[in-house]
Amino acid sequence: MVKDGYIVSCGEKFAKEEKAPPHPTSLPFQSESCPSPPTKDMEHFLDFSDPFSTEVKPRILLMGLRRSGKSSIQKVVFHKMSPSETLFLESTNKICREDVSNSSFVNFQIWDFPGQIDFFDPTFDYEMIFRGTGALIFVIDSQDDYMEALARLHLTVTRAYKVNTDINFEVFIHKVDGLSDDHKIETQRDIHQRANDDLADAGLEKIHLSFYLTSIYDHSIFEAFSKVVQKLIPQLPTLENLLNIFISNSGIEKAFLFDVVSKIYIATDSTPVDMQTYELCCDMIDVVIDISCIYGLKEDGAGAPYDKESTAIIKLNNTTVLYLKEVTKFLALVCFVREESFERKGLIDYNFHCFRKAIHEVFEVRMKMVKSRKAQSRLQKKKGTTPNGTPRVLL
Q1: Which of 12, 319, 334, 361 is the most buried (most CB within 10 A)?
Q2: Nearest 5 degrees, angle CA 94-CA 30-CA 71?
Q3: In the predicted model, what is the mean pLDDT of the chain?
Q4: Which domains are seen in the chain, by residue range?
């Protein structure tokens, strides 16, 4: 909101003087794996018994045929494994689950499904699997014959949509690093056409599929995952609006809100995303973390390579400045600024403090909502009822 020449957001004004930043908050990181495929008697393990758990922590399913690259994607994006190391990964033979809670906004579960497992087998309750899913990523090997993959995609999407119409269906056309630019475009067009034609023939034109060209050997996989994760963040419009206000009042050309662990950007301003700009921001995060690991820790190794004091400035040879500032323990703001605009660094810093305070307020509202839903869930369990009021059958 504009008031007296200032931009007012979350109780703060973007102005022209310094102000001390608030103390950041964050959530922990945790991960775990599932030892065996889910069956009908595993509802407690899968945490489907909590009607609000899926709303608080949505699930992302990674599916596709064998050797399509699902596990490699997960290891590169969330475990910082180098692409060359993925060549030695064994084929996944069991369903693996990983909880990703890197920051206040990146908070979901990833399920990696082996390509050889038929989860539509009667021993599997696929309705239970899809019921709490936020996004389904289907990986297709672009360098292989993808007719079988398209048939499996159609079967998976149609079954999942019958159970949960709110699932976001994402198709990663993977391993495109080995294709020429013309071949990439032709492959994407062909897969897009065939997949949508199959849905149209089945009378399911209302199902929307999103397609991405991806490779673990460049930043395309991180950008694709960023787009998927953003759809699962209910606060995304608020974050984008705050970024737009921040850059318009600070003379900044482009700004990203990054999760520093995975290099997924959870929000950016409304200006178009340039792939080269995104790659530079990812590289800057790597440089900051690597240098901090060497020079930023104490002699006994105590401390963290990324904390509330983390900041970095990199001047490029094209009169552009890269500016990184810590937002929370796991979130960083990375900005593109012209040198002449960066001369007003005091203004940028003050506006950043206002921006960071607004982000923390959004975070606090979300945490209050989570606590309220958990309390309501516990109360309903105690009363023996489900969210819609029907009696719960206690076994």
Answers
A1: 334
A2: 35
A3: 79
A4: 59-232 (3.40.50.300), 235-374 (3.30.450.190)
